Every structure is written in C-alpha cells, then in structure tokens.
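> tool_call: predict_assembly(chains=four)
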Amino acid sequence: MLKYIRRKLIHLIPITFAVTALSFFFVDMLPGDVADAIAGVGTDNSVIDEAAIEEIRKDLGLNRPVIVRYFSWLAGVFTGEFGKSYQTGQLVSEAIAIRLPVTLQLLIMAQFLAVLFAIPAGIITAYKAGKFTDKCITTITFAFLAAPSFIIAIILAFLFAVTLNWFPATGYIPFSEDPLGNLRSFTLPSLALALIEWPILSRVLRNDLIETLQQDYILMAKAKGLSNFYILMRHALRPSSFTLITVIGIQLGNLISGAVIVESIFALPGVGTLLVNSIHSREILMVQGIIVIMAIAYVIINLVVDILYGVLDPRVRE
Amino acid sequence: MTEQYLLDLQDVTVEYDYQGQHFAAVEGVSFGILKGETLGLVGESGCGKSSIGKSIIQLPPPTKGKILFEGKQLSNLSNRALQRMRHNMQIIFQDPVASLNPRRKVRNILSEPLIISGVKEKKQIEERVRFVLNAVNMNPDTTVDKRPHEFSGGQCQRICIARALILEPKFIVCDEPVSSLDVSIQAQILNLLEDLKRKHDLTLLFISHDLAVVKNISDRVAVMYLGKLCEIGASMEIYEKPLHPYTHGLIGSVPSILYENKKIRETELIGEIPSLMNPPSGCRFRTRCSRSEEKCENHEPDLREIRKGQFVACHFPLEY
Amino acid sequence: MAGLLLEVVSLVTSLATKSGKLNAVDEVSFKIDRGQSFGIVGESGSGKSVLSRTIIRVHAENRIVSTKGEIIFEGRNLLSLPEKEMRKIRGREIAMVFQNPMSSLNPVKKIGEQIVEVLIQKLGLSRTDSRYRAIELMNSMGIAESEKQLSNYPMNLSGGMRQRIAIAIAMAPEPKLLIADEPTTALDVTIQGQILNLLQEQTNKFNTAIILISHNLGVISRYTDRVAVMYSGQFVEESATAELMKNPMMPYTSALMRSVPDLTSPPHTKLRAIDGMPPSLLETPQGCRFQERCQGVRDKCFSEMPEIILNGGDHRYRCWYPLEN
Amino acid sequence: MTNITKFAQRLGNIPPLVNAIFTLWIPAVWISCLLAMVIFADLLPLYDPFESDFTALKVRGSPEFWLGTDVLGRDIFSRIIYGSRTSLTVGFFAPVCGMLIGLFLGIVSGYYRGRLESLVVGLIDIILAFPNIVLAMCILFFAGASIVNLIIVLSITSIPANTRIARASTLTYAKRDFVLAARAQGASHLRILWREILPNIILPQMAYILSFMSIIIMIEGSLAFLGVGVPPPTPTLGGMIAQGFPDINTDPHITFLPALFLFLTVLSLNLIGDQLRSRVAVRESAI
C-alpha cells in the first residue's frame, strides 16, 4: 500500500510542475501584460504611453527573461506569495484566503448532496433494471444531464427564492454569525451543483452495478443462499464503486467550473466570483494565483481519490 | 546432427517484465525440429510453452539464445529479411474467434498476408483464397463474403488455418489450436491438420496442455515444467516409459475413459506449481517430486540422453 | 442412508434470447439417490449448465427464463417454492461449485469473510465460532496455513487453492446435494485430480449427492456412479457409468467416446470425428436431433423424435436404432 | 416462475420510459428543424436580430413577435435562431477537432504503450487539472473572444475524454490475437493500426460525438452567460439568458425561452447519442 502511494506521489511531481508552468505561461504569453493593464491598454479611452508602460515593466521586473520570472513566481507560489493586486493593493494570497472557505463549503456540500442522491438512485435503478422504477429515475437523470448548471441555478432561484421565497436568492451569511442562515444561503447554490453532478454519478454506478451483477461471484453468492439485499450491499457495491470514485475525481473540474457560475448567480463571495471579477478587471496576478490554486487542488484531490481506490480495491495495490 | 533440423532452438531464454517484476518465462531451452516431423510441446499453464511458440516467430524474439531456421539465425536478420522469412513460418492461436478481426470479411482476412507480401494481382489473390478455403474443407462461395461472427468456433479455426496456409509456409506453430473447441469439433481439426501436413509437406510445432491430443498428433514430444525442458523423445517412448518423474505424474493424472481391458496408471502429483517469479533452486520439480534428494536442491540437472533419442533432465530418472 | 433425494420430471427451461425463444433444457427427467454421484456430460451449448442452474435457481444468463415440469427435492417441488423459501435451501441443502475459481470468488472481499458469511447466515454460528470453523474447514480442504489465508484476497491464491476455498464454502453446511459445474475445466491437469479427489472425499464423508458436470468423458468415467449424456438440450442416454462406457447404445455417445484421442492408442491414430455441428436450438429438426451427424440414420429418424426409453435394466437411451454391441 | 432472475436482466444504456418515437424520432426532427433554420436563417422571413423596436420592449408572445421581445425590444425568436447558430457551429467543430486529436493520441498511446503512453496520460492529467470553463474563460478573455478561439479552447477541453475512450478500446483490441496474427504475417505497425485497430474502434468512438456536442453546447452557453463568450451584440443563447436574468420576476420569458431552447437541443442530442451508442453496443456484442 505504501509503495502504491509512493508511486502515485512520484507521478504527482511532474504533473504539479507542468500545471504551475502552464498556469504561468499561458497567462504570461497572452497578448497584453500587467503593465498594459495598469497603463490602461485595451480599455476604451486609453492613450498608449510606451514610456510609461516600459517604466511599469521595469518596476514589476517584467523585463527579465520569462524563465527567471517563472521561477521567482513559482518560489512565490510555494511560500503563498502570489503578488499584489495592482488596483487595490491587496495581497493575492489574502484575497484568495478570504474567499476560499466559501467555495470549499459550496463544493463540499454539493459533492455530499450529489453522492447522497446518486448512490440510492444508482442502486435502485440497477436492481430494478428495465423495470418501471428504473425507467422513471433514468428519464429524470436524462433531463438533468441536459440542463447546464446556470439554467438549473436560475430555475432554482426563480422557484424557491423569487416565487416561493423559501431561501434567499443572493447573499452570504458567515457560519460564525448565523449557522442556520449560513446553511440556508448555501442550500440553493449547492443544490444547483449537486443536481448537475448526481445524474452522472448515478448512471455510472448503475452501469457498473449491472455489470457486476452478471459476474460469477454474484452467482456464487446467490448459490450460497444469501439474500438479494445482502448480496447487493456486501458483494456488489464495493467492486462497482471504482468507476464512481474515478468519475468523482474527473468531475471535480466540472464541479469547480459549475461553482464559478453558481457563485456569480447567487452572489456568493467565493473564489469563483473573485475570478470572474479579476478577469473583467484584468487582475493578471490574481487570475494566475486562482488558476494555480485550482489546478493544484485538483491534482491533490485526485491523489486522494487514487489512494481511496487503492483502499477499496486490493487488486490495484499490488 | 544440427544441420538436419529445420528449426533449431539453442539455449533460448524468454524474459518478461510484469508489473515491475522481471522474470524468465523460459530459461535455457534447447531442442530441434526435423523437417517434416510434428513435435509436441506439453506442459501445464505457466510452463512457458506458449512463450516458446511466440519467440520462434519473433513476437517477441527471445532475450537470450539462438533460434535457427534452415540454418539462419532469426534474430540476426534485418527487418526485410525477417519479413520474407515470415512466409515460411506461420502461427495458429488457441482462440480462433479472437484471432480474426471481427470487422473484416473472410476474403480480406485471407488476402491480407498476400497483400503484405506484395502480391498485387487481384485474380491471383482470389484464386489463392479459394484454393486454401477448399484445402480446409470450406466452401469458398458461401464463406468469402461473411464476417467471423457468422461462423462457429470450429469454422473460425479452419479460417485461421487457411490464413496460415496461404503463404505456403514450411513450418507452422500450432499454439493450443484445439483447446477452446468441443471434443467432436476437436477431432475434425486434428484430422485436418494431419491431412494438411501430409499434403503440403509441413513441419509442425504442436503446443498443448492435453497429453492425449499431443500424443495422437506428434512424432516426438517435449515436456516442459516451469520454464525448463524436462524431457524430450519419441512420442511412443515418452508415454510408455517416461523417464522424468514429472512426465510420469502428468500422464498418470489424465483421467481416461474406463474400459474393462485397459490398464490405468493412477498417480497423483502433490502440491501446487511454484511461482515463476521465485522458482525453486536446483531442479525446479523437486518441491513436488517423491524422488527428490539433497542433490536435487543444490544442482540443476542437465538434459542427458538416457535411451536412444530420449533426453531427460533429472538426477534420478525412472528405471524400467 | 440410501433413498431418493432428487427427482426431476419433464423439466423444460426456456431462455429468451435476442434471436428468439429456445428450450435450453427440453423434457429432461432423472432421479438421484442420497450420496450418489451423478455425471452429466455434453458439449458446450448442450444445456448441461442451464439444467444445473435451474435446479438451484441461479441464472447467469441475462435473459428471461421460464421453466416447466417438476424438480422434487426431498418431497418438495422446488419450482413452486417462493424465492424466499428457495433461498433457505440454497447454500444449506443444495450447494454449488462453479467452473472458474478465478471469477467465482469476490475479488475485493477477504477469503475469510467469504467463508464466514455462510457459516453465520446459514448455520447461525457466532462470528468467533465461525472463524474457528472456517479454519477447521480450510484445514480439511488441504489448505496450508489456513489461519493466515483468512485475511488474504483471492488474487493472492493459485487457481487450485481458490477452488478448494470454493469447495469449503459449498461443503460448510454439509449440504445434501452439491452441484459441481465443470469444477476443474479451468485448472491444470495435475491439479484437476487433486480437486476431484477432494470433492469425492468430502461428498463421501457427509453422504452428499453430487451432480458433476463435465465435457470430459475421462473425468465423468472415473468419478461418477451414474451418467447422463446431453445433446441439444435433451438427455440422449443415461445409465450406470461403467455400463455406459462399455455399452453405449446411442450413436452420439459412442461417437463422442471415439472422437477423443486416447492415451493408450499409438500416435497418428486416425480419430473418428463427428461431422458437422449440433443443430441450433432455435430451429431444432423434426425427429431425432442427431440425425444430421449420425452414421446409422434411417427414414424414421427424420420424421419422429425417439422417446427416451428403458432397455431392460436401467439403461435409458433416445434412439430408434440403437447400437448393438 | 417467470422471474427466476431477480437481478438485472438487461445491460446497456438507459431503457427509455417511452418508446423510440420520443427518444429518437422527435429529438431527430427537433435537431433537423433547428439545423435547417440555423443554416437558412438569412433566407427566412425573420426579424433582424440586432434591430430594436423601442415601441415594443419586453412584450410577451404575440402574432407579431412569436416569442416576444427582449429588454431592448429585439425579437426573441430571431435572436434564438441566430444564437443557436453560434452554439451549433461551436458545438460541431470543437467536438470534431477534439475527437480527431483524441483518437490519434488514444490509439497511438494504447498501441505503442511505454513512454509515449505515460506522456499522453500526463498530458491528459494536465489538461484536466484546469477546470474547463475556467480555462476557457481565461484564454478567451485575454486572447479575445471569437468563434475560432472558442472552437480552439473547447477542442482542447474535449481532448481528455476522447483520448481515454480511444485508448481504452485500443488496449482491448491490441491484446487480441488477430493483431498478433497480423504481425506474424509481417504487417507493419502502421498497417495494423490502420487496417486492424482503427476499424474496430472508430464506430464506438463516433457514437460518443453527439454526447460531446451536447456538453460543448452547454459550456458555450455557460461562457456566454458569464459574458466571456462571443461578445454582444452577436446573439448567443447564454448571453440572452444573462440579459434577461435581472428581470426574471417580472418578465421570466426573456430568460426561460432561450433556456428552454438550449435545454431541448442538448436533451435531443443526448437522446439520439444514447440510442446511437446502444445500437453500436448491440452490434459489438453480436460480434
């Protein structure tokens, strides 16, 4: 098992390296840099002052070779030092740190709800495969699969906030101030994310379970005279959950993407809204910082998923 | 002696890497096959018999040792020369369904070897395809435009044999060609192979785990255990008077149909086959051998000729 | 302890496949006594596996199954039992060993867990008791270091060892009937003997009757008391094993025996192959199902299906013109 | 005794609640009509999607404006058609490019294995590490939002899934004996890839393309909604939804009509894709 984790960790190093390099370069290589932005190039009423831009470049160290800049930036990344916002002067790390808990709470609640819906739905549809219950649930999953997150979010907001007024449409209440209000403010956003995630998970679980239920060892378990429920839970569920776990890992990127949209619809002050705002105000360092944090988070969470995989399936540990 | 072998294996070793572990599936195996004979290669799973078959057709080539075909060392050949040499050596696999591409028609499957070897004329290709289909007792008119899934396992194996024959090879490796077939179909394929061998002057290496099948088709038989050759000799001799305790045990463990007048040799080999990753020292069979002594643990037995043409790798061969 | 254990009467099992409905088992009747060893031999697709799985009501085929006839086990018709009752019989009274021990053990559950769950659920033992019992069982199956093996996963064991575990699981509740569906086909020939001997020893010990299914005439001949030959979903011949091997009446049985190469005959003996292929179960011919491949076929074979009939003693066969020996 | 098998008797894709008329033909008709309208939009008697009628702001559906007008008094139906044009253009070219690249990477890495495979797998991991919408947002905003850029970005995001599918099926086929048999006949690797492997994996792969199209259309909508897609005044479905969102309690139709169109289009593509996949799967299992 340790060997397995070590192998996964070693795999992580080049990926992390590449991910940080890409985060840096693709923002860096794009036309228009921080200096342009500060000088106002690209905005409608800008007067291009080459000398001023050059001055700003020098100040920011932008005239150094790109490799040097990358490594100094990378060193910054590992010490949590991403630079400063040139508009407000706020530290990038600080701005992210304030907003990260909001996004994390949203992601965790959404993931929890998605799994909570998906596992029973997957089990029921696989067990009743081809029957009426299966057809009903799978038809519903189909409808949700076709709805982009922003449409689901809008419908939820329209129904439960605007029309029924059960939950707040926008706004964020910190957990420390009002725990119940905090959960209420997170209900609709996390539900919106969960609703786009669960049909995928449920379908994956259903297909894998159906395949597992055809295996010889399930027949053997039946021949042992075990009950169907016991076989389903104790023999079939675990070997059927591997794809589910992999898919949760892969879907994480989509979940984060969804979070960006949902945060801006429900006006949650998370990393997503920060990213959207930073892009619109050309806060390049902020954008870089957010992207690299998202990418590293993705890599680390996938490592956790891989390890979980190893815990559940003795075959991959070898 | 060596010259008259059509195929000569000298000290062949085949190594693989599996999940970070390096091991030899075949270690230091030497034998030759005479022109026109059928050599049977028997052994249980993991003994390396299939690896030998594949190393002869250089897929992959052996990691150590030489394989000579008509006196030419195969691993020294350039790609182009090897390509030409492949006409002379073909292979038939165990699972006939898996060895035919499901998306291609029989006509395309059979003409593929001709096209690769540079035959361009359509008419000539068509003629050859019809000829080999007839040779394996299949009606060309009803078969050429079908795809493999429209045939039964036995028919698919006939198509595989036809494909192997189409380049008029001198030598065919038959890698468990009847193991996945039903007994009634198995006999048809075995008879077909015998026929073709006679008609087309073929030399066969017949790999199988089924001792009765091997005895029926082979002139000589080689027995392998855990990557090593234990015994080789004339088919009749090996089965009547095996020298190696493993050969003896193997033959004894085949359950045969009880007739009143037939004698049955009942022996049961104890224990399990050891792992190839970590083979026993000395003689590899010693962990399951009732005759094993200290010498077997420390010294690996060499292959030596005990009776004329019958070689055995054992310190204490059986006596008769 | 002799006496009738199982009686199958006119059993028909139909499967709905993509290309239509077919009778995988067609009008099969037989009896098994307590402690008897009953062999079923046949080629692939002859219906022997479907037959055995109908008895224990465990189907793998991903198709709709319907059954007719009677399966009377100790006086009760299994076919009319509700699933809940049937579950009590499965694994307790009737157990099963599958062909491939590589796939019949759950790859992500520890060996110990897979044995113990039967002991707990079927015999009502406590967790600690069942652990001891599991070790005992594994010892009697010839498994070395059984205590250590409990916490192993199936992938760490060889095929032979896995099949021993499967037998241990099947024999744990000392069932009255054990169904062994090609139990050694996936194993090496030297291991095959060990496993079959173990099965024989265990079933003798508890007077368990066994249905041994195999395509290998040698195995059937050596390990069974009675044997039935299946062809195209039907029993075509049934008798005491020694009698059948000596005096096959049905041309198919005889041809089957002759098409197998024999260890005692010299090399290059011409095999007597059976021409053609078994008929498709979707469109079985009128009359005898072996008609197309039979050497002694006559007009009547094409028009009328022969009934399976008794020949004086207890040798039954389905043929209009049986062989004379 | 008809339910001996209590367990799953049917494998495969989603069993439709209703029959093929609803799961295949109605979606197909929907997509065909939409496609026709989108292609011939310029010839149809539609309002100019850019022209505002300030006398008719935010009106509901009427004989004059079928689906009503938006905040700026532009005809919603006409804007939906022109907006779908953007969605479908991107939704067609991006998955096709992504599939071609993914197919190539998947086959090559699955067949040659070794270092090449680790490299491709690493590349996929790297692409996946950037959430697709976030990646697209950044590139589009800094490089400029145009249809071509949109297609490039979305092609990149659809490479990983395509590569995985192609690699997985190549791995299963490359192990089969017919590949070994081809090598024994002396076929070159290139010939084996082309004649033996590609024909086997291309069809299952193609069956996924409609599903990828629907995903890309959803992403395109999301980007437009966030205001980083094709810039206004070019109509886009996502942009229309975003524009109507502030007035959702008074004039929900401005938001929900384009949303409904987007939803139905994606749903239709998914349904047809699923049918296609299950048909290919049936053919596979027959082989």
